[in-house]
Write a structure and sequence with these properties.
Blueprint (H helix, E strand, L loop, with lengths): L1 H8 L6 E2 L14 H9 L5 E8 L6 H22 L7 E3 L12 H4 L1 E2 L3 H13 L2 E9 L7 E8 L5 E6 L23 E4 L2 E5 L8 H9 L4 E5 L6 H10 L2 E5 L5 E4 L5 E5 L3 E8 L3 E4 L8 H7 L3 E6 L4 E6 L6 H7 L5 H11 L4
Parallel strand pairs: 2-3, 3-5, 4-5, 9-10, 10-11
Antiparallel strand pairs: 1-8, 2-14, 5-6, 6-7, 8-9, 11-12, 12-13, 15-17, 16-17
């Protein structure tokens, strides 16, 4: 795919940026206006994302079979609704893969073996990245156990592991039955863009979101036991990124960079949507006319989702040879962040 190739051509120096480690040169050095302009000036970067609303139950084999079946279903839905582009990312719910039990030691599963064989095969079959949350046993019987999300690439290889930094602590001081908390918030360099992962209770800590945003995350996968949407929506808007939630109950949702739940399912199944990471955010203006200015000038070559209630929209290009930024400039429009900074400087005390 042209967009993926273009993204890989600008590849980053490392596969994952860690909290406390230096980000690649220029990753977040520019100010908010320059970052927004850079994003909007890129060619279209279409990404097909999928999420799951399902309660995983049973033993390890049953859970792996459920995950495999859902991957097949998501891939089929992507082929049906995304113009045959294929799936790029699928997110499963928190603790989808584990054994029955009350303690972390009883639930823990090694990555090598059945998990990697089954789900690595599905990643290869559907040529997609998978976020696989699991109670992860590392280093044998005496090794650490973590509430983790394993990232598999399109070849079924392990691209990285996120270990939940803020597991819940019970009244006796034990973290989720005996897991070891993680210590870093990595951002992974996928071929479609930069992916961060948080798990459930992590979302309550602004430093977690700040760390992912500072390292350049464009999408945050949020596998969770909780179906809440207000917190992820607030952070999506604050950092202008997409959030994909996957839960066992109530809803699985896609939150867009202006903080709206742009897609949601409320019955068990899969949610599949195409997004574009080369987007622009525009606030209301007379010239914009709720997005109609772009539709009239560029037709289907410009796409957008505008909220008259919020007076704000997300805009993207469907023309592989032209960016949304160039369309905006042709119409004499400004991105919202540019408007914010102009007003800030224009009203500053002299």
């Amino acid at each position: 795919m042209e967009g993926r190739a273009g993204w890989l051509a600008t590849g980053l120096a490392s596969a994952a940026w860690m909290v406390g480690a230096a980000a690649p040169a220029g990753a977040q050095a520019a100010g908010p206006v320059a970052r927004a302009e850079g994003r909007a000036s890129s060619p279209p970067r279409k990404v097909v994302v999928a999420s799951v609303l399902t309660r995983f139950t049973g033993g390890l084999d049953e859970r792996l079979a459920t995950a495999a079946r859902l991957a097949d279903r998501a891939a089929a839905e992507a082929a049906r609704t995304a113009g045959g582009r294929g799936l790029d990312l699928l997110v499963f719910p928190e603790s989808a893969i584990q054994r029955p039990g009350r303690t972390a030691a009883e639930q823990a599963v090694p990555l090598e073996g059945a998990v990697l064989t089954t789900l690595g095969s599905k990643a290869r079959e559907h040529r997609t990245w998978l976020v696989v949350p699991m109670t992860l046993s590392e280093g044998g019987a005496a090794g650490p156990i973590s509430n983790a999300a394993v990232l598999l690439d399109r070849a079924g290889r392990v691209a990285g592991i996120y270990r939940k930094v803020r597991p819940m602590i019970d009244e006796s001081g034990v973290a989720e039955g005996g897991v070891r908390p993680g210590s870093q918030y990595p951002v992974f360099d996928a071929d479609f863009g930069r992916l961060g992962i948080l798990i459930c209770w992590d979302q309550n800590y602004e430093e977690a979101w700040d760390a992912l945003a500072a390292a350049g995350a464009e999408i945050v996968a949020l596998p969770s036991a909780s179906p809440q949407t207000i917190r992820p929506a607030a952070q999506a808007m604050r950092h202008a990124l997409y959030v994909v939630t996957s839960t066992p109950r109530d809803n699985a949702s896609l939150v867009d960079p202006i903080g709206r739940v742009s897609a949601r399912i409320t019955t068990p199944g899969v949610l599949v949507r195409e997004i574009d990471l080369a987007f622009a955010i525009l606030h209301w203006s007379e010239r914009l006319r709720d997005g109609r200015a772009l539709a009239e000038r560029f037709g289907a070559k410009a796409g957008f989702s505008y909220s008259s209630r919020e007076d704000t929209g997300v805009f993207w290009s469907n023309d592989p040879h032209r960016s949304i930024g160039s369309m905006i400039r042709e119409l004499g429009l400004r991105q919202m962040v540019d408007q914010i900074e102009r007003v800030r400087h224009g009203t500053a005390r002299k």
